[in-house]
Structures are given as C-alpha cells and as structure tokens.
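Much of what follows relies on a compact textual record of a protein's fold. A complete example follows; check for yourself that the lines match position by position.
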Amino acid sequence: MAVIVKYIVVRNGDEKMTFATKKEADNHDKMLDIADNLHDFLNTAELKLNEKQMEDVALYLAENAGKVMPILRGVKPQTKETAPETAEKKTAEKKTAEKKTAVKKTGTKKSGEKKTADNPKSAKKAAINN
C-alpha cells in the first residue's frame, strides 16, 4: 500500500487545488491572498467592472505578479517581439562566459594556439625545443 501526501488549498470551505508539495500549496495560497486583496482594491475603484471581471483581473494580476511588480516600479515591460531576442542574447552571453571560465579553471589551451611566453607550459616547451 502506498502513502501519498497531498496538500490541499481550501478557501471559504471550498477545495481550490491539490498539490504534491507544501511549497507549491503555499505559493498558490499566497497568490490567492494577493488576488483577494486586488479584488478588494478594484472594488473600491471607480471602474465600471462587474464582479466576474474584477475577479478575472485580480486573479490575472496575482498570477503574473512577477511581471507586474517591475511595471509598477516603473520598469518598461518587455514586448513579445523583443523578449525572446533578449533572452536568447543573455543565454548566448552566459554560455560564452561559462566557456571562458571553464578554460581559465582547467588551464587548457585552445587548439591552434601558438606557443608564447604568456603561456608558461608553452614557454617551457619552447625553451626545451630551442
């Protein structure tokens, strides 16, 4: 017999979601708290939204809090067109930096690299060969 631990998020007596980890359940519960607070905020605004629209907007903003927070701080949001290019560029830059770090750590030289006095092993070999 298997024992399975499940974490259930309950709101107002209703089961909302079930999770395999406590961290996921806590994150979802926190997101629902944020959505409730946003709903209350929207309810006090002079916007002409019905109840369903307020719930949808509050939930959408809460689910995307990581994207919304920088916007509220004044950071320009990434557009769909520029976001992948920026992400690809950052990934390529990270890979290049990792390669440079790996070469420095291992002390290996690239193929085709000439023996120079800058490279102690190459300088020693050059001195022995001459």
User: Anything to note?
Assistant: The mean pLDDT is 77. The longest strand covers residues 14-19.
